[in-house]
Amino acid sequence: MRIDDLKKKMVASPDGEEFEVDPMTDYFCSDRPEVVKPVKGILEKFYNWARSESIWILGFGTGCGAIEMRPLMTPRFDAYRYGIQWRPTPRQANMLIVSGYLSVKTLKRVIRVYEQMQNPKYVMGLGSCTINGGMYYDSYNTIKRLDYYLPVDVYVAGCMPRPEALLAGFEKLKQLIREGNAEGANDYANRFDWYKANQKAVILNWDMPDYNW
Amino acid sequence: MNKKGLFSLEGDRSMYPQPGADGKPEIDLASHKFLKLWQGPNHPGITGNMSVELTVCGDEVVEAKTHVGYLHRGFEKLMERRKYIQNFPLVCRIAVPEPDYNEFNYATAIERLSGIEVPEKGLWLRTLTLEMARLQGFLMWIGGMAGAVGFGTVGQWSNYLRDLILDRFEELTGARIYHIYILPGGVRNDLPEGFSARMEENLKEITGFMKDIRRVLFDNYVYKKRTVGVGYIDPTWIYPYGIVGPNARAAGSMNDVRKDSPYGKYAELDFAVNHAVESDVYTRSFLRYRELLTDVGLIRQILHKMPSQGEFMAKLPNMLNFTIPAGETYVRSECTRGEFGYYLVSDGSAYPRRVNVRGPSYTHAVALLEKMLVNANIADVAQIMVSLHTYPPEIER
Amino acid sequence: MFDQIIAAVKEQFTLTEVSGAGPVLRFITVPKDQAVNAVRFLLEKHGYKHLVLLTAVDFLEVGEFQLTYLLHNPENKSDIGVRTRIDREGATMESAHDLWPTIATYQRELREMFGIRFPGSPGVDDDFILEGWQQMPPYRRDFDTKVFAESFYPQREGRETHDPATYMKEKLYPNE
To answer: Per the domain annotation, does C47 fall within a domain?
Structure first.
């Protein structure tokens, strides 16, 4: 996609007709994200239990932390026994692990991928770089706080965290989900304008719609 | 280039756009004959975040462009703001899966310019660490290579074996991935008790699994069909495109930094340079398999020949007020991907003036990959990328 | 081994400086307009076929960039670095992409990170590493990366920094 592709233009159909399209409204939906309210009582507890036992992670290694995600897929540390799988596409995933620092170029792709995931979705920030910038505190190309751009549910500190620390992070996340406190996606919908303003302040070549789903 | 792979490109080519004046087909995106496909930052056989923008006509790639920069942190700029000793935690993270080579190159560059000598046992321990890093690098790679053709089992085995080596690293240095073990003047720690015995057990297990991997992967009909004849590197491309390491040795070159300009204790170790004649994806992957076994043999030799007593660290001056006389130098070493080099310029102050990291993937993943992907089938792009063994963090640092 | 080569180079080009100790590495400095020709001479006549790197060093105090072409000879396993100085204002250099096609990548990075122009190099104006970058080229020494990072990205409060020398002094010698 180039930025010029998003402007209004005349398009020829295969039958030879010419008509005008506006890609931002015609090709992409211009809705905003909506808050998903919980259902009542014991049914929500059942749903939360089911969600916590089958978290599907998007397999996108955004930074250094991708190295320590590989041992988790092997039988030695085995995240699969917790119901956690790695999926290649965001449409089939409901958790995003931001594994380490995010350069501005990757942040644009991560935002796109996060917005394409299904509700209810969770974000885990792995490593110290998502907390306060880590050792790249004076780098001109990495972001310093992840929760200004995406709603984070749980942080796992370390550089790198061991696979056992990651599993402890998953345990904490499951506990939060069961209590009903993993409300990152609803927070994103509620404070959408604030998140979007932060994202656009950092990503200077914005050539996507505001909400990519 | 695709010589005689599974997805053959012979047959009726009248529907494909014909080459223009400079040998390349004219790409007119509005003509609906071409499709732009991004094999994006998250792709099969993942070795990092790099994307290839493919222009495809039918099933065949017509043009490819590499996009890097997803992992750029500005290391060379950050290193100028920290003192020499403060740079070691930073330097590890340049080539993420094999951090020891970064520390070794940087420490050797500082030693060369400032005249610090490393004692005997320190050199042996450094060589041992570097060989272990190579071994775990190859083990991770072979899982990725099999995964790129859709064979997941080998990845499970090789990641398990890699975990065994990481356990040995944890015993030796205190951390699994980022060791910060090689410092100017030697290494931080001596070998713990019983290290050789445990290492020998691990090496036996690794060689046992390697026999299985050979039967299951390299004698496998499907693997051979998908990789023989695909991704051919011509020997005349080696110097114009700066190809180093196993990619070049598979095409017939004999360049190996461990033999040409020995560092550490490689001059006293006995090993042969692995090379092959025709470089396609199958030959390159088999060459790396042989290099893995060479590394197992080297670790056994090192543990056998290493002196049991001795100093492992030279006496250093106060590193927080450490300055180096002005000068420049270049240090190289042979990591799993090829020649890895650090160019250090110092101006006599406590901060480095310029550190330039020359990773082998810099030339492999940009100019060479764009040339190799022309006329390849879409299904072969993943294998070609993984067979070049590129780590994107060292391209854009 | 190096004496013959350096004598041969001295005949054809003006060498302002030769440095480097040790058996396998030498650095020679030539003026800007002879640099690419010197590199070509070493490539074609003396077998320095492998281009190791092309990089730039910023000498802000004297207002110059130093470009270094590092070449390696695979036969006698030696390295020669050809250095040259160019002005910081309007920095341009002749492109050497007919010698090695891969040098286009190095020249692209130098254009983006230092602002040195290489007219004619294929693809030199494409973005290589940075995306949407609107400031000055970041590897120049007058670009202060800490100041930029603090002003552009929101930080998390509560971060402390200690100067390592004073910190260690207080820990090791607390009574002084």
So the answer is: yes
Closest CA to B168 of B210, B142, B196, B139: B196
**C119 touches A at CB < 8 Å:** no
Neighbours of C82 (CB within 10 A): 25
Taking the alpha carbons of C90, C96, C98, C100 in that order, is the dihedral positive or negative? negative
Rounded distance, CA C89 to CA A89, Å?
48
Mean local confidence (pLDDT), B17-46: 71
Sort out which chain A residues have CB atoms less than 8 A from C131's CB and list them: 104-105, 108, 205
User: Tell me: the pLDDT tens digits for B286-295?
Assistant: 999 999 999 9
For residue B343 the two structure tokens come to 């160019």
Residue B152 in this model has a pLDDT that exceeds 50: yes
Look at B69 and C130 and tell me if their CB atoms are within 8 Å: yes
Strands A122-126 and A154-156, bridge-based pairing: parallel
**Where does residue A182 fall: left (phi above 0), alpha (psi -120 to 50 degrees), or beta otherwise?**
beta
Q: What is the mean pLDDT of chain A?
A: 85
- Spell out the domains of chain B, with CATH numbers in brackets: 75-396 (1.10.645.10)
Across the range A43-52, mean pLDDT stands at 89
Measured between CB atoms, does A136 come within 8 Å of chain B? yes
Closest residue in A to B40 (Cα) is A109
B/e letters for A28-38, b = 16+ CB within 10 Å, e = fewer, are eeeeebeeeee
Six token digits for residue A64: 């250094």
Summarised one tens digit per residue, pLDDT across range C71-101 is 888 888 888 888 888 888 888 888 888 888 8
| ipTM field | 0.89
Specify the CATH architecture of the domain A41-202. 3-Layer(aba) Sandwich (3.40)
Tokens describing residue B134? 């190579």
